[in-house]
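Subject: for your reference before the review

Hello V.,

The reviewers asked for a structural picture of the protein, and I figured it would be easier to keep everything in one thread rather than splitting it across files. Below is the amino acid sequence we used in the manuscript, unchanged from the supplementary table.
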Amino acid sequence: MTTARAVHVVEIQRDSVRALLRTFVIGLTAFLTVVDLFATQAILPSLVRVYGVSPAAMGSAVNATTIGMAASGLGIALLSRHIDRRRGTLLGLALLSIPTLLLGTMPSLPVFTALRIVQGVLMAAAFTLTLAHLAEMGSERNVASAFAAYITGNVASNLFGRLLSAAVADHLGLAANFYVFAGLNLSGALLVYYSMGRIRPMEAGGMAMGAMVAAWREHVRSGPLRAAFAV
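And here is what came back from the structure prediction:
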């Protein structure tokens, strides 16, 4: 009886360690997925000086990422049933390193803006597909804890991403800042490669195009939903 109880205690401890490690990996994945979104905002004054433009112009260029995120979020929402979660997230994070790296070349302001939009497209794709993957992992309890970990990593990237960006730019320069974050993007891709399990996308359920259009018509008839869509 004592031996059985000891084995049970050991199993509980192992499960706790696995759950903690899983939580850390999920949070770290979120951190590495959206860290570029917030980090560049911390170096706005330096970018203004380098580019010789107004703070408003530079702010618009930096925050152009949200345009790409909005477009990508809609596209992934429509196509996610047909996209492999792991492969899509891995590809999104790997490709994200390219525009991040190119930002380090200090291109013209229009090119800078375009690269930020591309960043937004890839970040939102990886973000959305990871959330879909977490939602399909298992029980409601596991999904809730996974979402909590993912959002925690998101919030952490807001703070620590800014601090890291400011520190790197201050000590190594603006170009090095973008190179470091390109490395973080690749680290995120490697983390996904080794940690995210292979789960088939949710079946479309045989929904015909007509039924999908009818469902959207029903959504559009709702005043609160129309307001949400407009936002």
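For the response letter, the relevant points are probably these. DSSP finds ten helices and no strands in the chain. The chain has two domains: 2-200, 206-231.

Happy to draft the paragraph if you're swamped.

O.
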